[in-house]
Design a protein that fits this description.
alpha+beta, 2 domains, twelve-stranded antiparallel β-sheet, globular
């Protein structure tokens, strides 16, 4: 004889077994992930090679906050662009590079002015991209010349931190590559000196569905000097930079999945021989993979 009690008991028994099996499955899966995580935390996978079967597209957004030495806000500038790499011939290219300005510290940027000279700007990442000849197609006396060139240089920096010293990195131990120390020519208009860049494998995370290594970088007290000219005015800037951030690389194909950079620059600026107040530029860069 069937009773509601018996039917309910059978239902609870069946669902109980289903729940138990589900818990056991999830526990086992979690255990496998934990084992894999433990493996990665002991050391980065040896011999991991970069795999790019199709071109990879990124969006880089760099915001410059212009302030005085006391932190008073003046204005901000946003430089953004789409970067594509992974072509068969080893070249990379930029598209849809835009510059926008805002006088509100928390305000939203407008769409910005497209920099047509950067459309399909292609090259092979190399130290020659620090030379003035690499930017021969750029317009002369562009007030935002350095901000646009910084897109190129910052991306090369992210790629260097992600790949060049991969095999030397250990968990929670800073590594200071001697090769990265020294002055860098800024396309004939000054220099930037990296005093002591330090890299570290800081752990693992998951983004875009992939397990990634977190590579941390840090560089303090870096001298810089820039001399340029705009609208007949000679502009001289001299100061120092602190910068730091993270690069996330996939432990499956070694592709960069995301990167961030923060920079604090203090500079004395002279315009046509007239000394101005010391300025403080805060920079915030975000690199996000689009495909």
């Amino acid at each position: 004889m069937k009773t509601p009690f018996n039917e309910n008991a059978k239902f609870l028994l069946r669902t109980g077994w289903i729940c138990l099996l589900a818990v056991l499955f999830l526990t086992a899966a979690s255990g496998q992930n934990d084992c894999k995580s433990d493996q990665y935390l002991k050391a980065l996978p040896a011999g991991l090679e970069l795999k790019e079967t199709t071109p990879q597209k990124y969006l880089m957004t760099s915001v410059y906050y212009n302030k005085d030495i006391y932190g008073k806000f003046f204005n901000k500038v946003q430089v953004s662009g789409e970067y594509t790499r992974g072509f068969d011939d080893g070249t990379v290219k930029w598209n849809n590079v835009r510059i926008a300005e805002s006088n509100q510290e928390d305000g939203i940027f407008p769409e910005g002015l497209k920099q047509e000279y950067m459309e399909d700007f292609s090259y092979k990442p190399h130290e020659d991209m620090m030379k003035d000849s690499a930017f021969a197609t750029f317009p002369q006396k562009n007030i935002y010349e350095f901000q646009v060139k910084n897109l190129v240089w910052d991306m090369m920096g992210f790629e260097t931190f992600a790949w060049i010293f991969y095999d030397s990195l250990k968990l929670n131990e800073f590594y200071a590559p001697a090769e990265l120390k020294g002055k860098i020519d800024l396309s004939g208009s000054g220099y930037f000196e990296n005093k002591n860049i330090q890299l570290m494998f800081a752990g693992i995370t998951r983004i875009h569905g992939e397990m990634c290594a977190v590579i941390q970088y840090l560089a303090m007290d870096n001298p810089l000097e820039i001399d340029t000219e705009f609208s007949g005015m000679k502009i001289s800037m001299k100061g120092r930079s602190h910068y730091w951030g993270n690069v996330l690389i996939s432990l499956e194909d070694k592709q960069i999945e995301q990167a961030i950079l923060f920079e604090d620059v203090i500079m004395k600026m002279d315009i046509s021989g007239v000394q101005n107040e010391i300025s403080n530029i805060i920079r915030d860069i975000k690199l996000n993979k689009l495909n």
